[in-house]
Write a structure and sequence with these properties.
alpha+beta; Nucleotidyltransferase, domain 5; 3 domains; five-stranded mixed beta sheet; flat
């Protein structure tokens, strides 16, 4: 009987609770979930109707009795209750709806969050059913997942561009020596495209369409590609449906703002790096992780602007969750990167 009880409580789960995407890693199984951080609720009683991919399909398309919510904003919890419901849903899903399973959870947070925000993340995971909750800073997890030798006495620079935040860190001997966290990332790029379509074409589009535009024809370098696509939306003058064809060259204007702010943050971080580590960064370069790093030629532009070789990590959109998973799999070896001591 004791062996059975121990089995019920022996699950270990890693969660990348991102602004745009939630990813879940189960020890011994790998990445089992990668879905949008969106929840659909009944407007009347706040009952959960859909979570993740199914909920995202509803964005901008719901009747009055259904609301869609992103419970994460800028990398931190904006709605405690809904975030708890979302985490509880995914825990139940990976454990086949077994409500009696109480896993140990390692969850990542942006490096710039306050102690109050850290506590809220830990509290929400405990409320969602975790028996233990531990934190890992996002750039540390990203660097581990990218395969950087963070425990060496040398500088490793990682830039993780997620949905709500961009995390910049220089890591040596397993810790962050210099770091920066800004609330400019993929969602800011999407919003810039949305506003551009409103201002130039008087065309109202949804956030899903703006993201599709970025993914389909976006490019960090001006004049580098000649792609185009039809954009469907609502004419703000007539109120009628309208289709506009736009080119990748046009997107340079809306994308240049968020990209410039990210590059400025990288420069300001480099200015604070100790001289002993600067030479390491020049030799090893900057590693880009996160879904935002997949914007074509972003690495080339950063290399040109900061004069440091910049590379996109393999499977960059999964580096954070892979890093969390590596900590789960080798907990005793890597536990010192966690904010709380492992019991």
């Amino acid at each position: 009987m004791m062996r059975l009880i121990g089995g019920l409580f022996s699950q270990s789960v890693g969660i990348d609770l991102g602004t745009a995407t939630i990813q879940v890693y189960v020890k011994g199984k790998g990445i089992v979930i990668s879905e949008p951080s969106v929840v659909a609720l009944s407007a009347e009683d706040k009952k959960v109707l859909a979570v993740g991919s199914e909920a995202k399909k509803m964005l901008g398309k719901t009747p009055k009795d259904i609301i869609t919510v992103r419970p994460m904003m800028d990398g931190v919890i904006s709605d405690f209750e809904i975030t708890e419901k979302m985490i509880r849903y995914f825990i139940a899903r990976v454990h086949h709806r077994k409500s009696f399973v109480h896993p140990r959870i390692i969850i990542c947070v942006p490096s710039g969050v306050t102690e109050v925000e850290k506590k809220s993340v830990m509290d929400v995971t405990l409320e969602a059913g975790a028996r233990e909750s531990y934190l890992i800073e996002e750039p540390i997890a990203a660097a581990i997942g990218a395969g950087l030798p963070i425990y060496e006495p040398a500088g490793n620079m990682v830039v993780d561009i997620g949905g709500g935040t961009t995390e910049i860190a220089v890591i040596s001997l397993g810790g962050i020596v210099v770091g920066n966290s800004i609330k400019v990332a993929g969602d800011e790029m999407n919003n810039a495209i949305l506003q551009y379509m409103k201002n130039k074409y008087k065309l109202a589009i949804g956030e899903q369409m703006s993201e599709l535009i970025k993914i389909s024809i976006g490019d960090a370098l001006e004049g580098n590609t000649e792609k185009s696509m039809d954009v469907r939306g609502r004419d703000m003058v007539t109120g009628l449906p309208k289709v506009i064809n736009i080119t990748s060259a046009e997107l340079h204007e809306p994308l240049s703002g968020p990209i410039s702010r990210i590059i400025d943050a990288i420069k300001s971080t480099l200015e604070r790096v100790p001289p002993e580590l600067t030479s390491d960064i020049i030799d090893r370069g900057i590693t880009l992780t996160g879904g935002g790093s997949l914007l074509p030629n972003l690495d080339t532009l950063i290399t040109r602007e900061v004069s440091v070789p910049t590379y996109v990590a393999d499977e960059s959109q999964f580096c954070v969750i892979k890093g969390i998973g590596m900590v789960l799999e080798e907990l005793q070896k890597l536990k010192r990167v966690l904010s709380s001591p492992v019991k």
